[in-house]
Amino acid sequence: MEVFIGREEYPTMELVDTGSETNIIQEETEIKALLTSRKLIMNLRGIGQHTKSLVGLSESTAITMITGEEKEIHLFIAKGAIHTILGRPFLKDNNFKFEFLHKKGEILSYPEEN
């Protein structure tokens, strides 16, 4: 899903991961999107038991959906190559629904803002 991150609306493709407990972007994307973050050092262990270094947290980061709707999310900043991930916090906070329809496949839907 394409979204635009930050007030400068840096374009990026996001991986929507219903199993992820975090929202993650790589450090390079944080720099290009001119995000403000606070330093945070910790390791994140993935489902395959690999680890990734987290180096920061960007709080209340503006993202703009392809529809033009703006949301705010918290993003962990990862060092090195990693897919940008929108996980369960993003899905839950914004009432997104992810369902499988036999004839259509996977559908991601969300309510429109009034």
From TrEMBL:
Keyword annotations: Hydrolase
Coiled coil (residue ranges): none
Domain Retropepsins as annotated: residue spans: 11-93
Any GO molecular function: hydrolase activity
Name of the protein: Retropepsins domain-containing protein
Lineage of source species: Eukaryota, Fungi, Dikarya, Basidiomycota, Pucciniomycotina
